[in-house]
Specification:
The protein is α+β, with helices and mostly antiparallel strands. The protein contains 18 helices and 19 strands. Helix 13 packs antiparallel against helix 14. InterPro entries: ABC1_dom, Kinase-like_dom_sf.
Length: about 575
């Protein structure tokens, strides 16, 4: 067993009698307590199972240090003198590479995908959580719980004995027992798997946000969501980390004695540091959409209307320092996406999750995203072409449409170039899709100058009038009077003239169809004759017979001529 005691910054301390004991050994002492109970917190994470350890408070306080060897901060945050009877346990299956395990099936028959964690990532998670706790404890309200102990159990027999001990504390037919049985089965079926254990501080009153929402009012739900947004913003602003596996089971909440909300985020196995590889702009633009999608759209709380009033969120934001405007941008985007949940883009979360800091590129190249953008741009250019060539749109409206499509394409093509840059060995100048799109756009811009739409677009608020006889044509009064075009406007066509013109068109159309039909018949007859001549019986019999007839005719003619001579 490898115990990593120097990787965490704790919010708990050991009792004076156990100062020299390692924290994991004291944790095992709590597990072996007869009153110890293990219950479920969350199993929906991709790589972990989160449990809670509870010990009954003794009536006799004489030997309290043997039952509760850890001490936590008091309410005033001044001294470590509060005995701890509750801890959070995270169990992870470790391997050398990320591999898919069998699907976890809960007691209510829901299926969840599960993966193993890499050894280095497991240790990195502990260091990250301790760093986040250290950077946010200064204000007396840390974002995450502190670490108590972390261990990597390399011996398979020891890990199985440890899991069986936890299983005994679960009780029969419980979700926690089902979770531990699943881990035991995975370790037994694969010899290379190992067990990772992270122990964190907790409190008895804490529940997951998902469980806390049951039975409370909409107003209380709204306040909890505001607090969750506040914790996300604090995490970004004070530590530079983004939680990439955030859902309602990875946030724990309770009410303190003053009826204020206290919240802690857990499960930091998937995080991104925004200042590494200059990811700041990417996070602000993309990941905030997914963060709000998780905490807002996942539960469909009044999804169509939204909550409307977000002034309390802004009050939370003003309590923090914002050096370079990052916090304001993130908050504004969270509120915008909350007001308009249908505009949420879920693809950005998949891109961020695939981010690997060890690689040179910020994000992997996504071929499907590129194809989708090229398809959208081609569609917009088709609509632009229709607007340019259409004669049934008045000129000012036509120019507005053209300018709109050109601005859209000018904004989207640079985004497409940024996506193509992620492809290894890519040269933007040689990409055929981008070259075709840019060529089309330049062609339409030239057409725009020829139509002189820019001047009309600038003066689009000037008065317009519709000419009698052409109801869809609008001409500027000043231009008409200057050019003298008003007198040359054709009169409206009468009903008799229109019927006569339509009748003539029908006759011409019928004659044209007859000619085409005749040509087609002649052409088909020629084809049939050619096919007939290619047949062998025609050449042997029909062709010779034809030749014999012509020869007989010639002979008769020659006989008649000779008889006439004599």
């Amino acid at each position: 067993m490898k115990i990593l005691d120097d990787t965490y910054y704790g919010g708990l301390i050991c009792h004076v009698n156990y100062n020299k004991e390692p924290p994991f050994k004291l944790f095992m002492k709590m597990v072996n307590n007869p009153s110890c109970r293990i219950s479920k917190i969350s199993y929906s994470s991709l790589k972990g199972f989160i449990l809670k350890l509870d010990i009954d408070r003794p009536s006799n306080l004489d030997n309290l240090d043997e039952i509760a060897p850890f001490l936590g901060l008091n309410i005033e945050k001044t001294e470590y003198n509060v005995p701890v009877f509750t801890l959070v346990i995270k169990l992870v299956v470790l391997s050398r590479t990320e591999t898919n395990m069998t699907k976890y099936i809960s007691l209510d028959e829901k299926q969840f995908n599960k993966q193993t964690d890499i050894y280095s990532d497991f240790e990195k998670e502990a260091k990250t959580q301790s760093e986040i706790y250290k950077n946010t404890i200064n204000k007396g309200d840390p974002v995450c719980p502190s670490l108590v102990a972390i261990a990597k159990i390399t011996d398979k027999t020891v890990s199985l004995e440890f899991l069986k001990l936890l299983k005994k504390k679960c009780g029969s037919i419980t979700e926690s027992e089902n979770m531990i049985s699943y881990i035991i089965k995975e370790l037994e079926n694969n010899s290379s798997y190992q067990l990772g254990v992270i122990v964190m501080e907790s409190a008895t009153e804490y529940k997951t946000v998902d469980a806390f929402f049951k039975g409370i009012s909409k107003e209380s739900q709204y306040n909890i969501l505001c607090k969750l947004i506040f914790m996300i913003i604090r995490l970004v602003n004070e530590t530079g980390y983004i939680h990439c596996d955030l859902h309602l089971n990875n946030a724990m909440v309770k009410y303190n004695d003053d009826s204020k909300i206290v919240m802690r985020l857990i499960d930091f196995g998937r995080v991104v540091y925004i200042y590494e590889k200059k990811l700041k702009e990417l996070i602000i633009q993309n990941l905030t959409t997914k963060l709000w999608y998780i905490i807002y759209a996942e539960k469909n709380y009044n999804k169509s209307k939204g909550f409307g009033d977000f002034s309390r969120v802004e009050k939370y934001v003003h309590a923090l320092e914002d050096i370079d405007g990052t916090l304001v941008e993130i908050t504004n985007q969270l509120i915008d996406y909350a007001k308009f949940p249908n505009t949420i883009n879920s693809d950005c979360y998949r891109l961020i999750q695939n981010y690997d800091p060890s690689k040179e590129d910020l994000l992997p190249f996504d071929e499907e995203l590129k194809k989708k953008m090229v398809k959208d741009l081609n569609y917009e250019l088709t609509k632009l072409d229709h607007a340019i060539n259409s004669k049934n749109i008045r000129k000012t409206k036509k120019c507005e449409q053209i300018m709109h499509f050109i601005d859209y394409c000018n904004n989207k093509i640079p985004e497409l170039k940024e996506i193509c840059k992620r492809r290894p060995g890519c040269k933007i100048d040689n990409d055929p899709d981008i070259r075709i799109l840019e060529t089309k756009l330049k062609m339409y811009e030239v057409k725009l100058q020829e139509e002189d739409c820019e001047n009309l677009f600038a003066n689009r608020n000037e008065p317009e009038r519709v000419i009698v006889g052409e109801p869809e044509v609008a001409v500027n009064r000043n231009i008409d009077e200057a050019q003298g075009n008003i007198a040359e406007i054709p009169q409206k066509e009468t009903r008799r003239e229109r019927r006569k013109r339509e009748g003539n068109l029908l006759k011409l159309k019928e004659e044209q169809e007859k000619l085409e039909k005749l040509k087609e018949e002649q052409y088909q007859e020629k084809l049939r004759q050619k096919e007939k001549e290619k047949r062998p019986w025609y050449r042997l019999w029909g062709g010779n017979q034809k030749k014999n007839k012509t020869l007989n005719k010639k002979k008769k003619r020659s006989k008649v001529k000779s008889e006439k001579r004599y």
